[in-house]
Design a protein that fits this description.
Oligomer: single chain
Distance between the termini: 9 Å
CATH architecture: 2-Layer Sandwich
Largest sheet: 4 strands, antiparallel
Shape: globular
Strand order of the largest sheet: 2-3-1-4
Length: 95
């Protein structure tokens, strides 16, 4: 199983609309990529204001998702909820 994690680092002057993210952006991600699961985190204490973890059955299904027709819409929508440059981590779930 593959987990794609996207972190939004807290930086001076950064903005992040958690409501828009949860109610609009994440449903777009789900529609575009049909992941196995999605977990959203709202930072309380630490270096990130938010994170999302999206799981896929394999690297092939992850790569296919990134090539999906709505991927451009997902990427373009980022400007609607944050000015933060996200950081992505791709991991193999081992347990």
């Amino acid at each position: 199983m593959i987990r794609a994690s996207v972190y939004y680092p807290s930086t001076e002057g950064s903005t992040f609309d958690h409501e828009y993210y949860r109610s609009t952006h994440v449903p777009l991600v789900q529609k575009a990529w049909s992941p196995l699961s999605v977990t959203i985190e709202k930072g309380v204490n630490g270096p990130h204001v938010a994170a999302i973890h999206v799981t896929f059955a394999s690297m092939d299904t992850f790569n296919a998702a990134l090539g999906a027709p709505l991927t451009g819409d997902v990427m373009a929508d980022v400007a609607n909820y944050t000015n933060i440059a996200p950081v992505m981590q791709i991991s193999e779930v081992v347990e």
